[in-house]
Design brief:
Layout: E1 15-22, E2 25-32, H1 35-41, H2 47-50, E3 57-59, E4 64-65, H3 68-75, H4 81-91, E5 93-95, H5 98-117, E6 120-121, H6 131-143, E7 164-166, E8 172-174, H7 189-203, E9 209-210, E10 212-220, E11 227-232, E12 245-247, H8 248-255, E13 258-264, E14 268-275, H9 280-290, E15 296-304
Antiparallel strand pairs: 1-2, 1-5, 3-4, 6-9, 7-8, 10-14, 10-15, 11-12, 13-14
Domain Ribosome maturation protein SDO1/SBDS C-terminal: 241-302
InterPro entries: Ribosome_mat_SBDS_N_sf, Sdo1/SBDS, Sdo1/SBDS-like, SDO1/SBDS_C, SDO1/SBDS_central, Sdo1/SBDS_central_sf, SDO1/SBDS_N
Subcellular location: Cytoplasm; Nucleus
Length: 309
C-alpha cells in the first residue's frame, strides 16, 4: 500500500496574501506580514524580504501556481515574473487574517483617538481632553448608531438641542448631521479622525469644539486695498449707490475668527489671529495667489489649547 507524503505541499506561516484580478483571473502572491506596506511606502525595496515564495499563484492555499500562458495573457509577454510580482504588490488588494485585521483596527483606533484628542478642546475651559475621555465619547456615539440620542443632547446635560431645518412647507424637520459608527480599516486614520471630530461637534456627547490655529500673516501694504476679482461687499442700504469691491485686506480678515494684533508699517501689514483649521488651506491659497507670492503665512501654534494642571 503506497504511502502518500505531502512532498509538494508548501506550508506558509506568518503570511499575508496580495491579490490582483486581471484578464478574468485572480493572481496571488504570498508575502510576509507588514512588509507589503513597507514596500509600498518605499521603506523596503528588496523583494526577497517581502515575498515568502518568489512565484505567482492562482491559489496560494492550494499551492496552485499560475501557468505561463495565463500570466502572458494578463500581463503581456514582455514582462518578467519579478515585474509581474511588483505590479501585484503595487496594485493588488492585501488580504490578512482575522487576528491581523483586529490588530490593525486597534492600531487605527488608537491613532484616531490621539489625533482627535490633540485637535479638540472643552469650549468653556479651552482645556484638552484625555485620550480616554475622547474614546468614551466616541463609544457613546457608535453605540447609538452614530449619534448621541440621550437626554443630555436634547438640552438637559450639555444644553444642546437637536438641530432642525425648515422644509418647503415651513415645517421643522431633523437636520442630517455627521455620524460616527466606529473605526474601519479601509480609510486612513487622518480622514476618520476628521469624521469623528465632526460627529463629536455635531452631537456633543461631551462639550467639544475644534482647537484654533494661531497664525501670523504678512502682506505688502500696497496690495491691501486691491479689489478681489469677482467679489463685492453687500450693500448696507437701498440708498447705497453701488457695491464696493472686497479688498485683499477684507478677504484675509474674513478668514480670521479673532484678531490678536494688527500692525501697519511702511511696507508691510502684519496681523496675528486665530483661524479654524479647516479654513487654513483656503487662506493659504488666497494669499499665495492674490499676492503673487509676496504675502506670507506662518503657523505660530497648530492647536491653541490650555493644558490641564
Amino acid at each position: 500500500m503506497p504511502i502518500n507524503q505531502p512532498s509538494n505541499q508548501i506550508r506558509l506561516t506568518n503570511v499575508s496574501l496580495v491579490r490582483l484580478k486581471k484578464a478574468k483571473k485572480r493572481f496571488e502572491i504570498a508575502c510576509y506580514k507588514n512588509k507589503v506596506l513597507e514596500y509600498r511606502s518605499g521603506a523596503e525595496t528588496d523583494l526577497d524580504n517581502v515575498l515568502q515564495i518568489p512565484s505567482v499563484f492562482l491559489s496560494v492555499s492550494k499551492g496552485q501556481t499560475a501557468p505561463t500562458a495565463d500570466l502572458e495573457k494578463a500581463f503581456g509577454k514582455g514582462m518578467s515574473v519579478d515585474e509581474i510580482i511588483q505590479e501585484i504588490l503595487k496594485k493588488g488588494e492585501m488580504q490578512v487574517g482575522e487576528k491581523e485585521r483586529g490588530a490593525e483596527k486597534d492600531r487605527l483606533e488608537r491613532e484616531v483617538i490621539d489625533i482627535v484628542a490633540g485637535k479638540v478642546v472643552d469650549p468653556r475651559s479651552k482645556r484638552v481632553y484625555t485620550a480616554g475621555m475622547i474614546e468614551r465619547a466616541l463609544e457613546q456615539l457608535s453605540s447609538r448608531g452614530g449619534q448621541h440620542k440621550g437626554s443630555d443632547v436634547q438640552g438637559k446635560g450639555s444644553g444642546t438641542a437637536t438641530p432642525t431645518t425648515e422644509s418647503e412647507e415651513g415645517k421643522s424637520k431633523p437636520k442630517e448631521l455627521p455620524t460616527w459608527t466606529g473605526v474601519v480599516t479601509t480609510k486612513s486614520a487622518k480622514s476618520q479622525a476628521l469624521d469623528a471630530m465632526k460627529a463629536l461637534i455635531a452631537w456633543q456627547p461631551i462639550p467639544v469644539a475644534r482647537a484654533r490655529m494661531r497664525l501670523q500673516i504678512t502682506c505688502p501694504t500696497g496690495m491691501l486695498k486691491q479689489g478681489v476679482k469677482g467679489q463685492k461687499k453687500e450693500a448696507k442700504s437701498d440708498d447705497q449707490a453701488e457695491e464696493k469691491p472686497v479688498t485683499v485686506k477684507d478677504k484675509i480678515l474674513s478668514f480670521i475668527e479673532q484678531v490678536e494684533t494688527q500692525e501697519t508699517g511702511q511696507s508691510e501689514w502684519e496681523v496675528i489671529g486665530f483661524v479654524e483649521p479647516g479654513a487654513f488651506k483656503g487662506l493659504g491659497e488666497f494669499i499665495s495667489g492674490e499676492t503673487k507670492g509676496r504675502g506670507r503665512i506662518e503657523v505660530l501654534d497648530m492647536a491653541v489649547t490650555h493644558e490641564g494642571s
